[in-house]
Structures are given as structure tokens and as C-alpha cells.
Amino acid sequence: MSKNTMKAVGFYNYLPIDHPESLMDVEIDRPVPTGRDLLVKVHAISVNPVDTKVRKPKSQVESSPRVIGWDVAGIVEEVGPDVTLFKPGDAVYYAGSITRPGGNSEFHLVDERIVGRKPTSLDFAEAAALPLTGITAWEALHDRLGISKDADQNAGKTILIIGAAGGVGSIATQLAKHAGLSVIGTASRPESVKWVKELGADAVINHFEPFVPQLQALGYSHVDYIFCLNTTEKHWKNMIDAIAPQGKICSIVETDEPVNISLLQQKSVTFVYELMFTRPMFQTEDMIEQHHLLNALADLIDQGVIRTTATEKLSPINAANLRKAHALIESGRMIGKVVLEHFS
């Protein structure tokens, strides 16, 4: 392999994950940074549900290998001429942009404004578990739901996190607790209930049963905030019943069928979506906020306030292991995050 090419994992056809060509080891051109881009040497990656959604079977065929993957930890190799925030040799972590090639490659281009310094207390694999879920949870809690970072402001307020044992839920539980909220998570299996409680949830209820009777049994008449990480329409009525008057609901999950938003009216409930790709996708004026929040998250991690949510580690980074990781995600039983490290 020449210095102008690199290893990657990609695909031409959108296939079920048990098909050997759903993800393949490929060799592609090594990119060159321009503008505000960093060229990062990838040390570790993580897999998220968005990877499986993008890769899911459809008739489309790619003429060149499509590379996905939106969680990277690595070292800056080169910088574009307009870069001011980083220099070669810096250890970084980030999620990237869904409108650009992903990070399942030896080297990866990313805009410096959506990159943070890697937490010094974590190795690359532990750090790779955090960017996409960390950005999603942070933006949802603080930007979309408007929850103050000052714990004193949140005394007596409650949040219900639906799907608290997954990737986003695992970090959101910790951030919400750090913000001073009473945190109620949902989980349905003994191992996921244990995980959520370990992360600091005050209580756990089962998302397969009506919410309100379970909340009342815990002493809560309603909750001030709901963060939905699983099947928005399936939980819609439960969320309407459980939310406080003038409360706020944030979801990260698109709906497969229409929901009745009129049910929000009587309680004057706010409903908002969070997509962590919005800022880079639309090059918003506040795009650099992702740089700032990743650095703030790194500080919380290095202070021991937030812990990594990596629970499964695979090595090396290759198509076979990525297929395993995608299958784990698609099982719907993943607790925390699956990470891969080292190109062989």
C-alpha cells in the first residue's frame, strides 16, 4: 500500500449485516486536509445505531466504497491552512458529520470546529465511545430542553430517560445527575437496570409497562422533562400522561407513523427533536459549540464526574469485527457502547 492510500471498511451494496459484503475491507485514497480540516490518524472508533440505519438494506448501489462511522479517537496527523484550534500530534475525539465520509478508515478528515481534546484519563478506545452520544445528550439536555448546568437551579426537578441503558442514555443519565436533577431511567432487563443504577439513576421503571402507575409508586406524580431514546410513537401516550404541565419532551428518534401533537396542547407541553449532526450538516453559526462541549465533557471525565460508557471492545478495526459490532447494535440489547481499536 502506498503512502497515498489507506485501509478502510466500506461497502458498495446496502445489505443485511450477516452478508459478507455488507461491510468489506477496502483500500482507498488517503485524503488531504484543506481549509479548517484536520487529518486524523484513527486509533479507535465506536458504532452507533445511526451506522446501522445508514447501512440498512436498500436498492441503491455505490460506484466507490462508502465509508461510514461517526465516533473517532485519534491523533492529528496534518492540518489545513486555516486551522487554529489544533496542531499535529494533538490527541482528539469527535463524531464528525453525516454528510461527509465516516471514520472507519486509517485516516479521516474532520472540521476542527466539531472536534474536542481527548480526555487524558481515557485510552483511545474508551474515548471513542463518547463523542456522538456525549454531544447528543449534552445538546438535548442543555440546548433543546434548556436545562441549566447549575445544579442549584434544578433542585427538585425530575427527568425521565426512556432507554437509559443504551449509548445516549448512559451518558445522559450521568449528565442529568451532574446537573442536579432527579433521574428516572427506563430499562427492562436485570443487567440493564443494574447498569442504569450504577450510572447514578435515582430510580428505574420498565418501558414495557404504563409509566404513570410506576412513577406514582415511586412517589412522583409527574416528571418535568422527558428524554426519549426509543420509538417515539410507541411511548407517545405514556409521555403525554407522565409529563408535567408546561413540561418539555425531547426525542432523538424519528417516527414511523404519525403522532397526535394535539395531545400536547392541554398541558402546554414543549416537544423538540435533537440531532447532533444538525450543526455540521448546516454549517450553523454556532457549529463551534460542539468543540466547546466536547472539551467541557473531557474536563468532566478527567475530573471523575463522568465515566466512559464503553462496555464491549473489539480489535482490530476490520470488516469482520465491524460486522459483529453492527449485529450487536441491531440486536437491540446493547448496554453502553461497542468500540473497536487498531487497524491491523
UniProtKB/TrEMBL annotation:
A Pfam family (short name) is ADH_zinc_N
The main place the protein resides is cytoplasm
Q: Where in the cell is it found?
A: Cytoplasm
A Gene Ontology molecular function term of the record: RNA binding
InterPro entries the record matches: ADH-like_C (IPR013149), ADH-like_N (IPR013154), ADH_Zn_typ-1 (IPR014182), ER (IPR020843), GroES-like_sf (IPR011032), NAD(P)-bd_dom_sf (IPR036291), Quin_OxRdtase/zeta-crystal_CS (IPR002364), Zinc-ADH_QOR/CCCR (IPR051603)
Q: Which SMART domains match?
A: PKS_ER (SM00829)
**Enoyl reductase (ER) domain segment(s):** 18-340
- A GO cellular-component term linked to this record: cytoplasm
Q: Which UniProt keywords apply?
A: Acetylation, Cytoplasm, Metal-binding, NADP, Oxidoreductase, RNA-binding, Zinc
Which family would the database say this protein is a member of? Answer: Belongs to the zinc-containing alcohol dehydrogenase family. Quinone oxidoreductase subfamily.
User: What does the subunit comment say?
Assistant: Homotetramer.
**Protein name as annotated:** Zinc-type alcohol dehydrogenase-like protein
Give the species this sequence originates from: Brevibacillus aydinogluensis
Q: What lineage is on file? A: Bacteria, Bacillati, Bacillota, Bacilli, Bacillales
